[in-house]
Write a structure and sequence with these properties.
Elements (H helix, E strand, L loop, with lengths): L15 H10 L6 H11 L4 E5 L5 H19 L9 E4 L3 H15 L9 E4 L5 H11 L3 E4 L1 H9 L7 H4 L5 E4 L2 H6 L3 H10 L5 E6 L4 H10 L4 E5 L11 E7 L5 H10 L1 H4 L2 E5 L3 H14 L5 E4 L7 H10 L4 E4 L12 E6 L6 H8 L9 E7 L5 H10 L4 E2 L9 H17 L1 H18 L15 H7 L9 H4 L23 H17 L5 H4 L7 H11 L2 H17 L1 H11 L2 H18 L5 H8 L7
Parallel strand pairs: 1-6, 1-7, 2-4, 2-5, 3-4, 5-6, 8-13, 8-14, 9-11, 9-12, 10-11, 12-13
Helix pairs in contact: 2-3, 6-9, 13-18, 17-18, 24-25, 24-26, 26-27
Bound molecules: adenosine-5'-diphosphate and magnesium ion.
EC number: 3.6.4.13
Catalytic activity: ATP + H2O = ADP + phosphate + H(+)
InterPro entries: CTT_SPB4, DEAD/DEAH_box_helicase_dom, Helicase_ATP-bd, Helicase_C-like, P-loop_NTPase, RNA-helicase_DEAD-box_CS, RNA_helicase_DEAD_Q_motif, SPB4-like_CTE
Length: 610
Amino acid sequence: MSRKTWSSLDKPPLSEPVLEVLQEFGFKLMTPVQTAAIPLLLARKDVSAEAVTGSGKTLAFLVPLLEILQRRHKETPWGAKEIGALIISPTRELARQISEVLAQFLAHDELEHLNQQLIVGGNSIEEDIAALKQQTPCILVCTPGRLEDLFQRKGDDLNLAARVKSLEFLVLDEADRLLDLGFKTSVNNILGYLPRQRRTGLFSATQTTEVTDLIRAGLRNPVLVSVKEKASVNTPARLQNFYKIVQPEQKFLALLQFLRSPTSSSGKVMVFFPTCACVEYWAEMLPPLLPERSVLGIHGKMKNKRASVVERFRSEPQAVLLCTDVLARGLDVPEIDWVVQWDPPSNASSFVHRVGRTARQGNEGNALVFLLPTEDAYIQFLKLNQKVDLSELQEECVAPQETELKPLVEQLHRLQEADKGAYDKGMRAFVSHVRAYTKHECSAILRLKDLDLGKMATAYGLLQLPRMPELKNYQGDGFMAPSFEVDLTKLTYKNAQKEQARKQKLQTYEQTGSWPGRQKQHMKRTESWDQTKKAKLDAKSKKELRKAKKERKRKAEAGEGGSQRKRKQQYTQEELDELASDIRLFKRLKKKKITDEDFDKAMGIDVDDD
Ligand code: ADP
Ligand code: MG
């Protein structure tokens, strides 16, 4: 499709203020998805648009949204309690980002009456309500959970349902992701509050069958717009995609070399890890080993700091951002030079979304995935499954040597010796990584039993092998133990509060001869994760699980220090998450939305695991 200028839109033409702001952006031509979707939306059609990440979907809905709202304003000015447009986005970061772009338009004098409000989880709902009443926004940018809450809210005369009566435009951004993340019910509930006389724009990177279902439920005869940059290729065209095969024990060494190498050191790098615990650990280990760059970490369980981390990543030219899939989609950080995946992602479509963080809008970009020798079939798998071609990264960027490994692992050992906090994080990271490995969609290629867990623990620089069932029969000699004497029972925390708690426990031990909470803390695990998961679900009904979750939440809210300790004794953070996602799956199974087979597959129950 040939690209057109914004002013070439003529029936009807874009309004002056919108054109002026677009000019300030410096975007002369529309992108293909903008060229296709905007005229349709302006002509009062519902649109479901599919286009790769970075293809300019935000403006594809913001521009018609502003036009539609202005047009109505000219006929009947928007009332103080009227909401004209809703934009729903799956994550806070994305919502915030949309809201920032929108703010640039609303800064124009002639558009400022269309004020907006950002409504996302994390802030207090009371504040949201107060602001809604006071600012009377015409546009809401929200995440689905919080919006649903506000609709259901009774007794504080907000009555959001009444405010959306003359809604003109609904946008579901990253619709596929909304559904992936289990927001289907929320989205459907929200749709129930909205008038049917409205336009809807549904935007996603991939049209899944679930998106199609949603289209059926919520849209009137939508026009489907599908824009592929290159017909058969799923990733942005100017992206170079590399892989590097590394030995399991050298995985961290290889990453570090890469981050130190001139290949990557002149720009921003995003590094994806399989779990939140991995990000926590490496975000602590990496900075002292890479003092020349600023290293940031972000993951889904960080609630309040996320926005400021993203902001720092944006502003620092050579920053390295360690992250999980929370950030794999939609986030628009300009000029990321490299997207690195330390491990293959849990499913092939995440691969595309992760690498979609770079090479946005005509910029060049590079992506690198580290693979183990046992994982080389993944290259072919991606090619078949996602039509992504990977080429091997050149030697000069990364070539880990056996001789370099020992000193590096020793550095990791020393860092943990110096802080029990780091040691704890390392253990948790490793265990979570092993468990994440069993969740790979392509478990035929990525098999846990092919992993040399001892070597992997070496890459993590662990001081000892964790006690986990997967390691019970470990026969290999791949684990590199510390070369110096270290008494693990004497490690101390740098964090004063934690250290205080540890000392107290120690005291109790010295007085009574037994460790407080020890038994629970060292939950005896004799089964592998896969078996445990199934057993857990068999044993507990979903109701009980929910109750337990509520209780934990209550405890967590009751106070930081004490409750945290308590929580740790019962479940590890990973388990909590796992439970939450298990419950979600279980619900879907019960509602017959998925088959037993799907369920087992998703739970990894049929994983061939010894
Ligand atoms: P998507 O939502 O499709 O992943 P975004 O809307 O986040 O993509 O846009 C990606 C980048 O492209 C942003 O930095 C945006 O400012 C830029 N962009 C959007 N439209 C244009 C355009 N017409 N010309 C040039 N750059 C554009
Ligand atoms: Mg987007």
